[in-house]
Design a protein that fits this description.
Layout: E1 10-19, E2 22-28, E3 37-38, E4 41-43, H1 50-62, E5 65-71, E6 75-77, E7 91-102, E8 111-117, H2 131-139
Parallel strand pairs: 1-7
Antiparallel strand pairs: 1-2, 1-4, 2-3, 2-8, 5-7, 6-7
Length: 142
């Protein structure tokens, strides 16, 4: 069973994590964006800083420790009822550029695959909207 969509926009963060010239992409195991490759991340908790949220979400979803480099833009996912592809939810997502520090991907139940990929070699994969542009902006911060 999925949770009902919150009645207002939700703030979320994600991390474009780079390691030896490769980016970590993960595949969503459930909605929203089930089956699509994206960046690890999730909702910011009340009273939590953005950097703390991104580090926590990456640790929870992948078991990785990261060094956050900076903000790499923003994305807005609108509910399908407003012409978006976000199902019932409305999300404002702040992606951060980050460097891998330690650990190997250990996925939680929200994800079912993780790959370290060349940022230029994502063709043929189902990606969340705007992912190549976010990766390019994050790469510029390295």
């Amino acid at each position: 069973m999925t949770d009902p969509a919150p009645p207002r926009p939700q703030l979320a963060v994600s991390a474009a994590i780079f390691r030896a010239g490769r980016i970590l992409i993960v595949r969503r195991a459930r909605s929203p964006a089930k089956g699509a490759y994206t960046l690890p991340g999730g909702r910011v908790e009340f009273g939590e800083s953005l950097h703390a949220a991104v580090a926590r979400e990456v640790m929870e979803e992948t078991g990785l420790s990261i060094a956050i480099l900076g903000l790499a833009g923003w994305r807005e996912v609108l509910p399908a009822s407003q012409g978006g592809t976000g199902g019932g939810g409305h999300y404002v997502i702040l992606p951060f550029a980050a460097r891998w520090q330690a650990g190997e991907p250990r996925l939680n139940g929200e994800l079912d695959d993780a790959q370290w990929r060349d940022p230029e070699a994502l063709d043929g994969l189902a990606l969340t909207d705007g992912l190549p542009e976010i990766i390019a902006a994050a790469r510029a911060l390295l």
